[in-house]
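go over this:
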Amino acid sequence: MTALDFSTDGSFDPQVMNSVVQDREGYEMKTSIATVTISGELPEKLEAIARAGFDGVEIFENDFLAFDGSPADVGKLVRDHGLEITLFQPFRDFEGMQEPLRSRTFDRAERKFDVMQELGTDLVLVCSNVSPASVGGIDRAAADFHELGERAAKRGLRVGYEALAWGRHISDHRDAWEIVRRADHPNIGLILDSFHTLSRKIDVNSIRSIPKEKIFIVQLADAPLIDMDLLYWSRHFRNMPGEGDLPVTAFTEAVAATGYDGYLSLEIFNDQFRGGSSRAIAADGHRSLIYLGDQVRRSLGSGTMTGPDMPERAPVKGVGFVEFATDEEGAVELTALLHALGFRKTAVHRTKKVFLFEQGEIRILVNVDQEGFANAAYAVHGTFAYAIALVVDDAAKAYARALALDAEAFIQPVAEGELELPAIRGVGGGVVYLIDDKSTLGRFSEIDFRPVVDGNEGPSAGLLRIDHVAQTVAYDEMLTWLLFYTSIFETRKTPMVDIIDPAGVVRSQVVENESGALRITMNGAENRRTLAGHFIAEKFGSGIQHLAFLTDDIFKTARDLQSCGFKPLHISPNYYDDVEARFGLDPALTERLKADNILYDRDEQGEYFQLYSGTYGEGFFFEIVERRGYRGYGAPNAIFRIAALKRQMRPEGIPKDAL
């Protein structure tokens, strides 16, 4: 199965797809990023920024100072990467100083101008003064900037003024704009920063009246909503647009309404980003800006800042299949577990050693083929759920959007007559296939497979469909994959919750759609002693750690599973005494829960029942759930489930073949 392009009849047409991805309209958005946003030395940062597709870069002064080369060397390095230096920053504590400090600030400015000219950039950022020595007054500050504008003009340079949210006298972009307006100099303009405006909850519509030619550059950052000191919040918790909770889209719409046609630049201060992969963070940044531009275009119409003219976010109707890569021995064990869950083998691939198991609307593929990507995935990870198929309204459009948002296409040759499924690389380097019901893609099991009779067929367990897919990732990857899903697919992210593991805390956040047809729980592991961390360490990477199947009668399903030979995860009897007291359960219900090892939760929307398998391999497991109006995922039960699963696992340091 491979990722290709489709015309309306489901056939492959590269020209049609390329036109979808490459068309442009209106003002072409120009993207930039500050070097402070990503980790590494300056050359490494510039390489990552250029590779991600940015047009320009802000040079943060500390990155320049730490570089063992001249300003001219830095300028050449930037241009050799095909980038433009959009801004040199920051110049601090300038306006409102009294003599002799005032003269010193102008001397410092002249030295900055020297560096800028050697770098080859014409714009410097001056942030609002935080010095206790500064004196307030709009007219005083305006006079300082007018004089600075005169000096900058002699060198062909420009100065942008930014209101820091914690500025001593100026902390609001409206006041900064008034200073720029009164300075009345063509070389003095305003720099807008979404974090400084949104963190102080300033009305973004105040931006709309600012003349576009006086906005010299726009800096963007999102952030989770945290009640803390503004400076500390800014310095440690900013993230990419779309990764946090601030209304960055509304801010950018207000900027676009002015007719602004300059750079949109990311300025992110984040401890996690500073320690992460420079390439991955830069790629996330570029994706976030492309997604933001698409949102603005859809809100304000064509002619505003845009990137690729991509289709809308893809609605998801459900999970088409999940595919496991394994070997012959692993397939025997996995097949036995699927039989115990009430699945039956219904088909085998026509040219590959791939088996299809079905129950209700659930389809599981077991790939034992010795060639292709699945075999390579098995060689690295062992038995692994390496691929998932999402059923979307239009696979070709979903694929086009994914490529426009910098997703990596997955391409693998197929035999003559087999379907070519569009696909992109996902979590842990796995595969996300895209199928729909409007083309032949929805008939992949009929076209690529031939039916078989399962001699080991047992009774169904009443499993209806996949309720949710749980993907375990390193914690510092969570924002990457949340942005991946929410930008490509019509989904939303839920608030982050802490999952308590006896060995630590796992951060969990869900990507879901309104109908509940797609639910992906993202679990971020911070240490390998947790169950999630153990899974990542043993599987050599992130991936699907468990699948949850939906039933409409968990007690009947439990009985059916027992007749299939299923062995549920044993839950401590102590749990049931507590859950009865917490929820005031009827003792008879408690006894039923205990007899079948079913976990229980309840909220204002309804009830939730959970039944688990034991672990398969190094931490993978299955879950069966029943929802009675409940929208969550049973987070309060996680510690009890994790403790039970870890009791089954190989002790740390014991070789796999020693048990």
Q: What stands out?
A: The radius of gyration is 28 Å.
